[in-house]
Write a structure and sequence with these properties.
The protein is mainly beta and 97 residues long. The chain has one domain: Nucleic acid-binding proteins (OB fold (Dihydrolipoamide Acetyltransferase, E2P), Beta Barrel), CATH 2.40.50. Strands 1-2-3-5-4 form a 5-stranded mixed β-barrel. The model has no long low-confidence stretch (mean pLDDT 92).
Length: 97
């Protein structure tokens, strides 16, 4: 049974994922590398382990510096590796990595 207007309503999109991590590299133009650390419980031994993952994020104005804590949000693919965008810098680093 079709609706009167002839078009179905668009499905709702899920909210964009965001992550908080530390900038490890700013050597590319408009791109930063962010290392996100999370703790997971070992399936057998139950001990908590730190797991690290690197994300490439778009930094349009080149604001971030190595060591800064930043928030990134997922976005459409911007290049082969970049699927994240810098939203805000949460804290500045006093030392250089």
């Amino acid at each position: 049974m079709a609706e009167a207007s002839g078009t179905a309503p668009a499905p709702a999109r899920r909210p964009r994922q965001s992550k908080v991590g530390v900038v490890t590299s700013t050597k590319m133009q408009k791109t930063i590398v962010v290392q996100v650390t999370r703790t997971v419980r070992h399936p057998l031994y139950g001990r908590y382990i730190r797991v690290h993952k690197k994300f490439y994020a778009h930094d349009e104005h080149g604001e971030a510096r190595p060591g800064d804590t930043v928030r990134i949000v997922e976005t459409r693919p911007l290049s082969r590796l970049k699927r994240w965008r810098l939203v805000e810098i949460l804290s500045r680093s006093t030392r250089v990595l």
